[in-house]
Amino acid sequence: MGLEKAFGESWVTSKMEFAINWARKFSFFNYPFVTACCGMEFMSTFASTYDIARFGAEFPRFSPRQADVLFVVGTVNQKMAPVLKRVYEQMIEPKWVVSFGVCATSGGFYDNYAVVDGIDKIIPVDVYIPGCPPRPQAVLDALVKLQQKVQKEKLV
Amino acid sequence: MIENLKHIFGNKIIDYVKNYDIDTLVAKKEALIQMISFLKNEEKFDFLMDLFAIDYLGYPDKKFEHRYEIVYNLYSFENNKRLILKVPVTEENPSVDSIVSFYSSADWYEREAYDMYGIVFNGHPNLKRILMYEEFQGHPLRKDYPLKKRQPRIDLK
After folding, report:
1. Is residue B145, in this structure, part of any structural domain at all?
2. Does residue B28 fall inside a structural domain?
3. Which of A87, A139, B54, B74 shows a CA-CA span of 20 to 30 A to B142?
4. What is the DSSP letter of A53?
5. Backbone angles phi, psi at B92, to 5 degrees
6. Chain B: residue nearest A78 by CA?
7. Is residue B128, in this structure, part of any structural domain at all?
């Protein structure tokens, strides 16, 4: 655009929406709602081999009020469901939810009185990660997909 | 030891077998407190390893009338011996005396058996659900609890 020519190379012009979404997608504060064995793979994704910090999402906040992305990692049972809902409600906008592993996504092989068959019965979900448990590569793939989704969001 | 028990409790002992080298007793529930007291104080079974219930509804080749059994796994550190005590409980009156006063570890075991099977433990200090939420109806591990039954979720207060 013309502004860059007028002011020199130290200037960049962009759309406000693009810039804000770009900033958001590379600075996720996540809230790990870890209830089961999937948490091991989640930790592995954080560790140096896979290093989720490369995508700017390495900073877990253990208060939902400070978090952007809710990672629901593992089985959610009927007794836990209202707690998960409360945690989601406590997060401030904008917020996203990642369903990590088959148990969170659909209840997995638990088809019984105790387990919620999918957290989307309780809260809206943006990205689902299949696997029991998912490999760290799948988690990074989901994160990239979430970033793409965030980039496309409309602010108005 | 078993001769001793048979001598003291007589016809209160319904059955005795040795399974996998472990003494297994079946006894009437009226004699439970007396028997636990004897086993703990005289025979030095100082550790309650486990306590759980069994629902025999629809069990193939069932040779007895009662529906539930409460199973006590006892262990003696002093003699390095194990003993399994089974107490039959009927469907009409699913209750048995609590043994919390003898073994503190029975507290949560009995709450679990109450939660999952609806067995009432008389004299338990705090008999309420331990795993399921308070509003849950019924006892999910009973064989007549419908497999596909789901109950409404309760919001936090």
Report:
1. no
2. yes
3. B74
4. G
5. -70, -35
6. B153
7. no
User: From A117, which residue of chain B is nearest by alpha-carbon distance?
Assistant: B150
Peptide bond into A94 cis (omega under 30): yes
Number of inter-chain CB pairs under 8 A, A vs B: 29
- The answer to whether B128 faces chain A, any CB pair under 8 Å, is no
Which of A76, A77, A79 to mutate to test binding with chain B, by most B CBs within 10 Å of its CB?
A: A79
Instruction: Determine the topology of domain A30-151 in CATH.
Output: Rossmann fold (3.40.50)
**How does pLDDT run across B100-154, given as a tens digit for each residue?**
999 999 999 999 999 999 999 998 899 899 999 888 888 999 999 998 888 888 8
What does the longest C-alpha to C-alpha distance in chain B come to? 57
Residue B131 maps to a domain = no
Write out the DSSP string of B46-90: -EEEEEEEEE-TT-TT--SS-SEEEEEEEEETTTTEEEEEEEEE-
Please tell me which residue of chain A has the smallest CA distance to B156: A82
Nearest to A113 among B140, B153, B154 (CB): B140
Q: Give pLDDT tens digits for B30-88.
A: 888 888 998 898 888 999 999 999 999 988 988 888 899 999 999 999 989 899 999 99
Percentage of chain A exceeding pLDDT 70 = 99
Rounded-to-integer distance, Cα A24 and Cα A26, Å: 6
CATH label of the domain that carries residue B27 = 3.30.460.80
Cβ of A113 within 8 Å of Cβ of B154? The answer is no
How far is the CA of A145 from the CAs of A58, A72, A139, in angstroms?
16, 16, 10
Give me the number of domains chain B comprises.
1
Test A79 with B133 for CB contact under 8 angstroms.
yes
Pairwise CA distance, residues B98 & B127, whole Å: 10
Q: Which domain holds residue B16?
A: 2-99
Is there a contact between A79 and B149 if contact means CB atoms under 8 Å apart? no
The answer to whether the CB atoms of A85 and B156 lie below 8 A apart is yes
Mark yes or no for CB contact B133/A83 under 8 Å. no
A113 with B155: Cβ contact below 8 A: no
